[in-house]
Structures are given as structure tokens and as C-alpha cells.
Amino acid sequence: MQHFVQNISPVIFSIGPIAVRWYGLAYLIGLLVGIKILKKLYRQADNADSAPELDDFVFYATLGVILGGRLGEVLFYSPAYFFNHPVEILAVWTGGMSSHGGMIGLLIAAYWYAKRHNIDFRSFADALVMAAPLGLFLGRVANFINSEFVGKITTVSWAVVFPVYDLFPRHPAQLYQALAEGPILFLVLYFVWKKHIATGLVASTFVVVYGTTRFFTEFFREVDPSYLGLYVGLTNGQLYSLIMIVIGLVLTVYFNGGIKHSRT
User: Fold this and answer.
1) Is 209 within a domain?
2) Low-confidence ranges of the chain (pLDDT < 50)
3) Contact 183, 137 (CB under 8 A)
């Protein structure tokens, strides 16, 4: 059976030593478009009249995602490797970003920004997570192009061969996760957003649904070399996702009795 061979170059084009990569472009588009979505949705919240322009949040969001994502990859997934190759910690353009770490970094940046501008963090977080699925989707597609986080060996007809990894047909796990963390996650969040039940509930729903989709799609991914979950039969991503689910459920119960939105 003929399988699709992933030979797409991770580099879009290069000028001398400068290379423009799909990975970096995905992050750039996700951040810039995400901020536009955030600005539009946040103005539908209770304090829309006093909402800041949010243009300067691009800087803090970028810093939070990149630092959080890279440090998450270093600390959560490959501490031994980066301990022996510390210079490569700075090579973020080659790939290797933890989505869990990126979310933590973005959350810290958003909380700091909300406090600095004296805006309600829960309303801000609700609008922010509505913009997140786009970035997650593009990031997973970039993972596919980079041939990283490959799936397990399979015989399904839609299997993909990643020559830079090996020559076995594998699940395109990156695309499974792109679908789950992108359009599927967005549709669930949009449903909760339109219901406008309580401030903060969209954000807590994001934590639960992302953790759940990530937990199940991890079954199709090749086991990470730093398999911390060895003794409980789970991957690193599944362990961190379970923690997210528990936190999200607690927040959902808490926010469900909170202040209602009044969007227009």
C-alpha cells in the first residue's frame, strides 16, 4: 500500500543565513490573528467601555508563549537532553515547544496584563481562550511539517511516512491533535460563550476540553523518550492533561455560580 510521504521542507525560504520556517510563521499568525479575535470578543464583555486597546498585549503574549513553551519542553519532556545540550534551549526556531508550558506562560502573561490594566481577569481569560484554538491548530500543523511528535506505527490507509524519523507508516497524530485542539475545541468553547452562563466558565471549559482531547489523542502518538508516566501506563502529555482536567473541573464548579456575562 502506498502511503503519503511527508517531505515538506520546514523552511519556506531562506536569504543567506536567514531562514523563514513554517513553525515560526504558524506562531506569528496564531498570535497576531489571535489578538484580533481577543480584542473583538473582549469588547463584548461587561467592561467593554473601559477595555484597553490590547495592542501591547501582543508583546506579553508572545513572550509568555515562547518562554513558557520552550521551558515546558525543557522541564516537562526532555530535561536530560537539554542538560547535556544547553545551547539548544535557545534554538526555538527548530521546533520543540510544550503546549502545556506555552499555556502556563500565556496565562501568567495574561494575569499580569489584567492586573496592570485593572481589568477583570476572568472576562479577559474567557476571550483569550476563544482565540487559542487557532494557534493550537497552526502549531500542530507545523509539528506535522517538522516531522516531530510523530504517531505510532499503523497499517491504516491514511498513514504517513516521516523519512526524517524512520520509514514506517505512522498515524498522523499531529493532524489528529490539530483537529481536536483546533475546530473541535473552538466549537465547544463557542457554544459555552454564546450561552454566557458565568464569567470565567469559558476559560475553565477550555482547560477541561483541551486536557480531555489531548489525553485521548496522545494514545496515537509515539511514546516520548522521557516517559515519566511509565509506572502508571501514561505518557507525559497524558499526565499533564489529567492535571489540567482536574483543575478545569474545579474551576468550572466554582465559576458556574459566578457573575453572569452581558454580551451584546
Assistant:
1) yes
2) 259, 261-264
3) yes
pLDDT tens figures, 63-79? 888 888 777 776 666 66
CA 103, CA 96: separation in Å to the nearest integer? Answer: 15
Q: Phi and psi dihedrals of 43, rounded to 5?
A: -75, -5
Give a yes or no: residue 86 inside a domain. yes
Cα separations in angstroms, 23 against 16, 44, 54, 103, 144: 19, 32, 25, 17, 10
Q: Are 81 and 92 in contact (CB under 8 A)?
A: no
Report how far residue 23's alpha carbon sits from residue 92's, in angstroms, rounded to the nearest whole number. 9
Residue whose cell numbers read 469588547: 43
pTM of the entire predicted model: 0.83
Q: Which pLDDT score, from 0 to 100, does residue 53 have?
A: 67
Ramachandran sector of residue 18 (left: φ over 0; alpha: ψ -120 to 50; beta: rest): beta
- Using CA atoms, how far apart are residues 224 and 60, in angstroms rounded to an integer? 30
From residue 40, give the alpha-carbon distance in Å to each of 43, 51, 121, 196: 6, 11, 16, 16
Find, among 244, 254, 256, the residue nearest to 104 by Cα. Answer: 244
Q: How many CB atoms lie within 10 A of CB 262?
A: 11
Which cell numbers hold the place of 240? 499533564
In a domain, 211, yes or no: yes
The answer to the question of residue 261 being in a domain is no
Helices and strands counted in the chain (H then E)? 9, 5
Whether the CB-CB separation of 68 and 104 falls below 8 Å is answered with yes
Domain enclosing residue 18, as ranges: 4-255
